[in-house]
Design a protein that fits this description.
The chain is mostly beta strands. The protein has no helices and eleven strands.
Amino acid sequence: QVQLVESGGGLVQAGGSLRLSCVASGRTLSTYAIGWFRQAPGKEREFVAAISRFGVNSNYADPVKGRFTISRDSAKNTVYLQMNSLKPEDTAIYYCAADEGARYTAPIKIQEYDYWGQGTQVTVSS
């Protein structure tokens, strides 16, 4: 079983950037496809971005395309979410999740993911 820990969240002004990290322990991260999701107050958790096991494929939600980039560093057992041109509507708790079953895909559905981190808060001020 893998344990996931997110970091890198914080308070930033609109137009700014943050880089979130998802560090794995317990198992090698390359065993899993990794997704980032977010949940704003009063809203359901939603898909943000995902990357396949070996980084060949990735998917992004429409609201973040062109602004967010997901990447993985196998040597550091870490997946990153680089967030640029942040908007107040990006404010949420961001979670990373691991999908044990996906081999070459970057799943976008919450129910496909098996393990979750505790989340990191991102707040974008206007």
